[in-house]
Amino acid sequence: MKVLSSQSEKVFRSAGVASFAVLLSRIAGLVREGVMSRLFGAGPSADAFVIGFRIPNLTRDLFAEGALSSAFVPTFVEYLQKGDRKEAAHLANLVASAIILFVGAFCIFGIFISPWLIPLLTHNWATTAPEKTAEAIKLTQIMFPFLMLVALAAQAMGVLNSCNQFAVPTLSSTWFNVGSVCSGLLLGFWLGPQLGITKIEGMAYGVVIGGALQLLWQVPSLIRSGFSFRFALDFNHPGLRHILKLMGPAIIGNASVQVNVLVNSFFAASIVDPVRGVNGAMTWLSCAFRFMQLPLGLFGVAIATATLPAIGRSAASGDIDEFRETLARSLGLVFLLTVPSSVGLMILGPSIIGAIYEGRRFEAYDTHQTAVALSCYAIGLAGYSAVKILTPAYYALNDSRTPMLVSVGSIAVNACIAWSLVHGAHLGHAGLALSTSCVALVSFLILFWTLMVRIGGMHGRRLRGVILKVCTASLLMASVIWVSSTVIAGLLGSHTFGYLVDLAISIPLGVGVLYWACRSMKVEELEMATRALGGPILRRFSAPNAKLPN
Question: Which residues of 278-310 are buried (b: 16+ CB within 10 A; e: fewer)?
Fold first, then answer.
């Protein structure tokens, strides 16, 4: 049991390093989004940019946190476990070469079909705002190469994570955010008039430049680890064939997630807001989901990133007890961190959105509508994060069929719920965010129950205890921050200064109440979570003999 706890704690510390890097990345992403909102508001150009970025960006989950990582990392780790580093490096080159060949060809194909694809997704725009459709087509064509760059960056991330290096690959998305906004402003606002580039087109070119920086940032670490790229193709290689075998169902399963996004985009384009008309819904949903991605990336994806190599090693060695222990601890940690985050986003949403986005062309009405969407997204945060943990666990057990079937089934569930909430209940963009949450929760429950049956349990009683205690603590936290937020809003009003004061007081107050409540109820994961999330900072001030592993 001592070994199991040591393995779980090692995962949590690795997750802490990844979480700290993800935090920096998400903050940079919020800065980028804040710049975009103030420059373009929730108007037609902003909506067109969301659609233009959405199609190539759909593969971020597919590659960075989906099929490629889930299939590549366990296979790559298996080669490293055998001690054949040269063969592992050859496998990495085969995968990178295949990405360049096939994803590059798909990018070219996507550029050519954009004039037909975009009108299908935004049918309402084609009749009511044809100039908006034309702008979305142009932006899509500019940003399509981002797809290949992010796929290569994701594969590089998988290599480094397999070598237990988490900070550098996770920080790569920070370079994307910083590079995209800086180069976008340079091209769109300073050089644009001389180059014949509009402001929004300059931001689109910035996305491509940022994607290149995201990849290049990881190259020195790859070289230092002994992995330098050499173009190679061998589709008979057993490792590559195994990855492709796993990726086939995984791509289908993850593609269903992307189909859900496209379905929701289709519904969003049909929404006519009483104030903004055909404008706004796409931007509100995009801005809200950006904030939902902060705890999702900080906790869900980071913990999944650290867990995947560990459970891959446990599965490869046949140690199901360690596999079960590590997975259960990781899920407990996810619930401890995401349930309170969901509650905080629901209550403090208006202040969070207002502090970052509101100003210039992004008005108070846009803040309200975005906060409504954020509340609906937040409901599914725990489920979404848990799925990020569970899906790779199936791949570590060489089962890609179950996640595929669950994910494909979610298409029908999402379409039915989205249609019912948007057109039946007339909830507008909030209905789309709520349907996304419902799908995440249903997928989690099915994956969890199926895996629990397969591996003979997953410490279910302990997990239920953690969830119950965390929910109780979150309700107590919610009551405290609701009172503080209401009082501050009454005293200072709804403007930037009031929003900032609310966040400066309510967030530390809420965290303090949550920590006290969880500690009083003896939530086991609390101490490990504190060490994991505080490790990257405390390490700098620790004595040499207390140094945490990188």
Answer: bbbbbbbbbbbbbbbbbbbbbbbbbbbbbbbbb
